Amino acid sequence: MTFHPHLARPLALASALLPLAACGGATPVDPSPGGEGSVRLLPAVLVEGGWRGAESDGACSRDGDAVTCPAGDAGAVTLTRAGESLRVSFVAARAVTVSALAAEGTGWLPGATSFISNGFQSWSQTGAVALRPKVDEADLAKALAARGDGEVLRDGFAQSWEFTVVGGGGPYLLLGATTAHVFKPWVQVTSDAPGRLALRLVSGGAGESVALRAGERLDGESFHVAHGSELAALAGGYAAALPSRRARVARSAEAGWNSWYELWDGVSQADVRVNAALARQVLAPRLPPGTRLRVVIDDGWEQGWGDWEPNERFPSGLDGLARELVAEGFEPGVWLAPLLVSESSQLAKQHPEWFVGGASFTHLENGKMLVLDVTNPAAAEHLRGTIRKLRGWGYSLLKIDFLFAGTFEGARMEPLTGMQAYERALSIIRDAAGDDALLLAVGAPAVATLPFADAWRVGGDIALEVFGPSWPYVTNQARSVGARAPLCLATLCDADPVLLRGLTAPEVGAGGWVVAFAGGALFLSDDLARLDTARARWALDAERVGYALGGRPALPEDYLPASPPDHLVSSFSDQLAAGRVSTAVVPEVWRMPDGKRVALNGADEARSIAGVEVPPRSAAIIP
Q1: Is 158 left (phi over 0), alpha (psi -120 to 50) or beta?
Q2: pLDDT value at position 579?
Q3: pLDDT digit string (tens) for 60-110?
Q4: Torsion sign (Cα): 286, 291, 292, 295
Q5: For the sheet containing 618-622, what is the strand order?
Q6: Does pLDDT of 24 surpass 90?
Q7: Which of 152, 179, 322, 620 could form a disulfide with 394 if both were Cys (CB 3.0 to 4.6 A apart)?
Q8: What band does 1 get if pLDDT is binned at 50, 70 and 90?
Q9: Nearby residues of 396 by Cβ (< 8 Å), 6 or more positions away
């Protein structure tokens, strides 16, 4: 790598890390054609509605690997580097309210044309987007304020939550948060000339507010900054820096049947019994010897969201059904949304003080949901008791869903940010579930979730009841799985079940490959009593089964496409198009963990991929 003499002395770095000129004059990076890359970042703080620091309030000073900038009369803000990690901290000179901390500046990366735009939570639109000269502040504010379904259907061009990878024909730059304790972390990258970047690594600015007294210090989230030509090495380095539970507790990818994607919320005890027996016939013979089948009872078993007791369709109770399943050799699992409570539930009526003031989520079918305030000791004990009850009924896998709602800002009994409350909620759930329970987190932000969950849903739902199975869901899932491969190196990524009904043989086969690309689970979810089970052979050959349960993701060779889109399209909009045609830009060449290559053609016409003619809406092994 080359660096320019007007820049401050680069810090001592690991070989894969992009050297950082962290301080010096206000001169921006002046790239040279032969340079591999450079970055100049300075610390800033959003205090009382205005950004301070980053040389706007006077010259910055350097002390070893730390750079400190004055922030007017509010205090001083410092960027500290330790190896591949960056963190911004602020020390208040008087009583102030802080909304965000940032490392911001300029960079040079030859060949850079696009970046990965990661959505806030599991279901959020995620993929590669073309770099823009700038982003309008109104668009950025809209993106940061979006919640729930509005954020899921994001365009993605304004910023990326948690991490990004920048590149497009040369070296890569990876910028990724490794913590989310207090703030929602995000990254913004723009470019006004080839190779020239404007960078922001931000903790907060999404509704958070932290009050400080004079002399108090506030730390932002830690970010991992790395550079290199080998994407696999960069992704592995970021994964290793994330504090994931998987690094401490070994878990294998699981296989089984989930009730959701055809029975929906009308599932019954009888449905579960029939499908469990059929899953043994259809799936078990295709699994490695000794693999035990999971049977997961999804949404629809409960009396209501928040009233977590079985309804009339489960006359034996969930405990009785679990005993039956265990006796038949199955491992039972159950779904719940532990942090959301229906406004019409008995719990909401009996304990209106247990909820976050000013925070709610409107479910399209079930109406307004309140957010449990885990800083209220009574509400926290209720959450703990609910999890212990489900574990006591015999469920060793808990599919905990709609977790993003726990990050919403609002009035809590203790003045915590949404991310602080979210961390407390997951800590309560993990403690109550016990170390041996498997927690699958869904609708969840990744970084804050990985220390507590054993597996993480990597993309959106593979079907919605209003549409049923269709091709745009497959490509949408593939786009998320590919873009989030660095996260899937840190945890088990669940790409949702392989759906066998309603799709053509090539589409089902491609769906099987998408699950194999994630490498973190293998589930069915059709009502097997109504299915031509011969369809299973289209997706469940030994090779795809092995990859799906292998515990490691594939990595796209075209991780950043040659022609990136200017924004992300949603599977919802594709569903409404004639013929349900997928318009998502999806990686075409995937390298499996053992080196084998697979082509995925998301288009409605045949394409030549790596010299192989691949039929439309299909996948094929290639040389």
Answers
A1: alpha
A2: 79
A3: 999 999 999 999 999 999 999 999 999 999 999 999 999 999 999 999 999
A4: negative
A5: 555-556, 589-591, 597-601, 618-622
A6: no
A7: 322
A8: very low
A9: 331, 332, 333, 436, 437, 438
Q: Is the dihedral of CA 591, 592, 593, 595 positive or negative?
A: negative
pTM: 0.95
Cβ contact 376:408 at 8 Å: no
pLDDT of residue 485: 98
Residue 481 burial by Cβ neighbours in a 10 Å radius (0-12, 13-18, 19+):
buried
Token pair 């469920």: residue: 395
Alpha carbon 353 to its chain centroid, in Å, reads 31
Residue type, 51: W
Classify residue 541 by burial, with Cβ atoms within 10 Å: 0-12, 13-18, 19+: middle
Structure tokens at 46: 């959003």
Q: What number of CA atoms fall less than 13 Å from residue 118's CA on the CB side? A: 30
The encoded tokens of residue 380 equal: 């926290």
**What single DSSP character describes residue 9?**
P
Do 275 and 257 form a contact (C-beta atoms < 8 A)?
yes
Question: Quick one: angle between helices 505-518 and 471-483, nearest 10?
Answer: 20
Contact 68, 81 (CB under 8 A): no
